[in-house]
Design brief:
It is built from 6 helices and 10 strands; from the N terminus they run E-H-E-E-H-H-E-H-E-E-E-E-E-E-H-H. Helices cover 34% and strands 24% of the residues. The chain has 247 residues and is α/β, with parallel strands linked by helices.
Length: 247
């Protein structure tokens, strides 16, 4: 089985999700849209692969907004086209944070600023804890999704939708893939200033991330297992994946 992983920047890696997919027998191909030297000028040109060549697509997070034309205007159209085509073909998609927002936009929903940013470990309300446990999950975002018509909300909190299914796709606003190493990279790349601006202690955030990583790893494994087994299972078609929605 072949999985395409879209890394939008050089910091956000497939982490715990990627490790579990490999344990399940997926061969991961990771592409990076914005190279490290263009992190502060991310309006690069990028040609996305064709989704029909893959058994699974994972779209990771990014420090930019889907609707920020100055940051992503040169390449976001290509990703939205990839996600729309994956949905049409029945290729399962796992969208994480920015990836969930891109999936939302690609399928007719919209994305805008959230009432407040979420930075750190938060609990959520889930309609299906066997698919989306209530956490705590790591968050770092300032946007929220207005879901496309086909989507089914699975989890939420007072800020925004936290998880949804759409066809053979799953979008999550939080970061199940996160590791302590990536948290440190976020902090080193301007995240400390963001934390302090929003009343979050960066040292406490890093320490809590280290303490919670074993439990977060177990939750990530559970989500990674539930996604292909339940959301992307075969249902009325001959390719891997299906539209069995939790609820």
């Amino acid at each position: 089985m072949r999985a395409l992983v879209l890394m939008h920047d050089h910091v956000t890696e497939p982490g715990l999700i990627g490790a579990r997919l490999e344990e399940r027998g997926y061969d991961l191909t990771t592409v990076t849209v914005v190279p490290a030297e263009r992190h502060h000028a991310p309006d690069v040109s990028f040609t996305f692969p064709a989704p029909g060549d893959w058994d699974l697509v994972v779209s990771l997070g990014a420090p930019w907004s889907v609707y920020d034309e100055t940051a992503v205007g040169s390449w976001i159209g290509g990703e939205l086209a990839l996600l729309r085509e994956a949905h049409r073909l029945g290729v399962p998609v796992l969208g994480i944070c920015f990836g969930a927002q891109a999936l939302t936009t690609a399928l007719g929903g919209s994305v805008g600023p959230a009432p407040r940013p979420e930075i750190g470990w938060t609990r959520i309300e889930s309609d299906d804890r066997s698919l989306i446990p209530e956490g705590p999950w790591f968050q770092w975002h300032h946007d929220r999704c207005a879901l496309p018509p086909e989507a089914v909300e699975v989890a939420r909190n007072e800020v925004c939708t936290q998880a949804f299914t759409v066809g053979r796709g799953l979008g999550v606003q939080f970061h199940p893939e996160i590791t302590t190493t990536v948290v440190r990279r976020y902090l080193d790349l301007g995240g400390r200033e963001q934390c302090e601006r929003h009343g979050v202690d960066p040292r406490e955030l890093r320490a809590r991330s280290r303490a919670l990583e074993p439990a977060a790893r177990a939750r990530a494994r559970g989500l990674t297992d539930a996604f292909p087994d339940r959301v992307a299972t075969v249902a009325g078609g001959d390719r891997p994946g299906g539209a069995v929605r939790p609820g």
